Amino acid sequence: MITRRIAAASMTILMMTSLTLHAEERIKVLIIDGQNNHNWKATTPVMVRGFGDGKMFDVDVTTSPPRGQDMSGFAPDFAQYDAVVSNYNGDSWSPKTQQALIDYVNNGGGLVIVHAADNSFPNWKEYNEMIGLGGWGGRSEKSGPYVYFKDGSIVRDESKGPGGSHGPQHPFQVIIRDANHPITNGMPLAWMHAKDELYDSLRGPAVNMRVLATAFSPKSGRHEPMMMTIQYGDGRVFHTPMGHSDLSMKCVGFINTLQRGTEWAATGKVTAPIEQDFPSDNDVSIRDY
């Protein structure tokens, strides 16, 4: 296991801006990567850069052993962080590490689930409760209902069938369904997300889950959840199925929601502003990283 500190903003920026938090007030974030069926070597640096744009985060990255190797020594010290961001989809963790994450979130830690991290650990009961919805890995009606938006309300569909699907990558419009939550408060009610995999047919326990935004899937013919929060014990979880590639993560909408979702998971409030270059209802906005 390799853990490394990544400067989330340059010293020049820190010295020049009066908005930067004092060191003791900055939010400590741990990103977990190392295994994924997506290119984590390309996406983790984009998330680190995005957190740097927020000027309120200190970011470490911990990288697991490669797939198929001994995972017994993979034991991140979750308790040292205000929020843990998972960019991980791979081999099971040891029972000790699994219990450490359960205890961390249950006791008030923040957890952020990004894209394929909701494919992980289909047989880990507590993880599936933490993330609300997941896909692939043999998930089925036994995992919980499909959840989607239809006719003005959230539907919990108990139909039989596999969990997890998507069509070809494409830009799509995100629709805010709950504008009163701190994460989405003040956000445009419709905005264009960059080319991405639009996950559909996710299913899971969906307990204590709040759907903040959806997007219409041409594949499923339904409005699928794109931003969710879950309360797990005393902890807060922010889950976004967006973020397939470094390109989709360079979308200002993704970056800004990642900042705001992580701040909320860590503190229960949001002070990160809506960015001036946030996407409009018709136009994608990409950061030139």
**Helix count, DSSP H or I runs of 4 or more residues:** 6
Oligomer state of the chains in this structure:
single chain
**What is the helix content?**
10-25%
Shape: globular
Known CATH architecture of the domain at 2-138 and 225-267: 3-Layer(aba) Sandwich
Question: Which structural class is indicated by helix and strand composition?
Answer: alpha/beta
Give the CATH H-level superfamily of the domain at 2-138 and 225-267: Class I glutamine amidotransferase (GATase) domain
Q: Could you give the count of β-strands?
A: 14
Query: Could you please say which CATH topology of the domain at 2-138 and 225-267 applies here?
Result: Rossmann fold
Biggest sheet features: 10 strands, mixed
Classify the beta-strand content into a percent band. Answer: 25-35%
In CATH, what is the class of the domain at 2-138 and 225-267? Alpha Beta
Q: In order across it, which strands form the biggest sheet?
A: 1-3-2-4-5-14-13-12-9-10
Rounded Rg: 18 Å
Mean model confidence by pLDDT: 93
Distance between the termini: 27 Å
Low-confidence stretches: 9-23
Order of helices and strands: EHEHEEHEHEEEEEEEEEHH
Please tell me about this protein's structure.
The structure is a single chain. The protein is of the alpha/beta class and 289 residues long. The chain has a domain at 2-138 and 225-267: 3-Layer(aba) Sandwich (Rossmann fold), CATH 3.40.50.880. It has 6 helices and 14 strands. The strands form 3 sheets. A 10-stranded mixed sheet has the order 1-3-2-4-5-14-13-12-9-10, with helices on both faces. Strands 6-7 form a two-stranded antiparallel ribbon. A hairpin with a 2-residue loop joins β13 (222-232) and β14.
